[in-house]
């Protein structure tokens, strides 16, 4: 049985004032029936870890470098994320793939660094609207999955997030049938590669998940939770999404 996961991606949002949101979330969720993960900007990680104390909310980075240290101005290593209180890291988000030309090979190298450091890698895959319109969705996702997930990945150290690029921040979502098709495909491809281990790997859906559509998305086959952007910033929005998963 896979434990569900509600993951929030704060992207480039949040300052010290936003710690009030995480405190409110922690107060309302003292014994959640699913895992909760917040990935704030790196500048907030350590303060958020301190604000959370023993609360059952995990923290993650939004990217890491493949190297452990060195001359990489502006970058952050997996070890630094751990040091700041993170247990997870989002890798290969479509915004990073687009803004920083991250290839599948680069994402895989980062995922290897994350695993070696003891961080859970939340690896994102997803098609653009043009790719979906051209009937290439499963091709694209299969290639990203194969190229981005390291050999030896396990259910304990790897989570896959299906995030159609055209659904992120747009208010649009695929049909439930389209989500099921992709998640069933991901499970089958992971099973081809990792055997029985794939049964335990959690598959998140991401892209315009809101309190109003969360329950129906979570009822779809092979959806083990969500990666949530905009609606994770406020406890008042993220709370009901978590409730829909519990
Ligand atoms: C995301 O950025 O991972 C995301 C899913 O964003 P949103 O929920 O805002 O569409």
Automatic annotation (TrEMBL):
Superkingdom classification of source = Bacteria
- Identify the residues that bind substrate: 9-11, 169, 208, 229-230
Pathway(s) this gene product operates in, as recorded in its UniProt entry:
Carbohydrate degradation; glycolysis; D-glyceraldehyde 3-phosphate from glycerone phosphate: step 1/1; Carbohydrate metabolism; erythritol degradation; Carbohydrate biosynthesis; gluconeogenesis
Q: Does the keyword Cell cycle apply?
A: no
SUPFAM superfamilies registered for this protein in UniProt: Triosephosphate isomerase (TIM)
| EC id | 5.3.1.1
Q: Which UniProt keywords apply?
A: Cytoplasm, Gluconeogenesis, Glycolysis, Isomerase
Active-site annotation:
93 (electrophile), 163 (proton acceptor)
A GO term, aspect molecular function: triose-phosphate isomerase activity
**InterPro entries the record matches:** Aldolase_TIM (IPR013785), TIM_sf (IPR035990), TrioseP_Isoase_bac/euk (IPR022896), Triosephosphate_isomerase (IPR000652), Triosephosphate_isomerase_AS (IPR020861)
Q: Which reaction does it catalyse?
A: D-glyceraldehyde 3-phosphate = dihydroxyacetone phosphate; L-erythrulose 1-phosphate = D-erythrulose 4-phosphate
User: Is the Transcription regulation keyword given for this protein?
Assistant: no
- Supply the PANTHER family for this chain: TRIOSEPHOSPHATE ISOMERASE (PTHR21139:SF42)
Q: Which HAMAP family match?
A: TIM_B (MF_00147_B)
How it assembles, according to the record, is: Homodimer.
Family listed: Belongs to the triosephosphate isomerase family.
Q: What is this protein called?
A: Triosephosphate isomerase
UniProt organism field: Defluviimonas salinarum
Q: Recall the taxonomic lineage recorded for the source organism.
A: Bacteria, Pseudomonadati, Pseudomonadota, Alphaproteobacteria, Rhodobacterales
């Amino acid at each position: 049985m896979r434990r569900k996961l509600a993951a929030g991606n704060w992207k480039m949002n949040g300052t010290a004032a936003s710690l009030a949101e995480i405190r409110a979330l922690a107060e309302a969720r003292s014994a959640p029936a699913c895992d909760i993960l917040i990935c704030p900007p790196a500048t907030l990680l350590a303060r958020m870890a301190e604000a959370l104390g023993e609360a059952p909310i995990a923290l993650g980075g939004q990217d890491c470098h493949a190297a452990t240290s060195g001359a990489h101005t502006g970058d952050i290593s997996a070890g630094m994320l751990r040091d700041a209180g993170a247990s997870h890291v989002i890798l290969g988000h479509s915004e990073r793939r687009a803004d920083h030309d991250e290839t599948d090979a680069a994402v895989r190298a980062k995922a290897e660094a994350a695993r070696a450091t003891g961080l859970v890698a939340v690896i994102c895959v997803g098609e653009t609207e043009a790719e979906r319109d051209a009937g290439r969705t499963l091709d694209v996702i299969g290639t990203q999955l194969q190229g981005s997930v390291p050999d030896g990945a396990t259910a304990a150290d790897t989570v896959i997030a299906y995030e159609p690029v055209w659904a992120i921040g747009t208010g649009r979502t695929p049909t439930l049938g389209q989500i099921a098709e992709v998640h069933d495909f991901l499970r089958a491809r992971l099973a081809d590669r990792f055997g029985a281990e794939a049964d335990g790997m959690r598959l998140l859906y991401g892209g315009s998940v809101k309190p109003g559509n969360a329950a129906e998305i979570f009822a779809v086959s092979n959806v083990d939770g969500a990666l949530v952007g905009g609606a994770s910033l406020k406890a008042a929005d993220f709370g009901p999404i978590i409730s829909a998963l519990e």
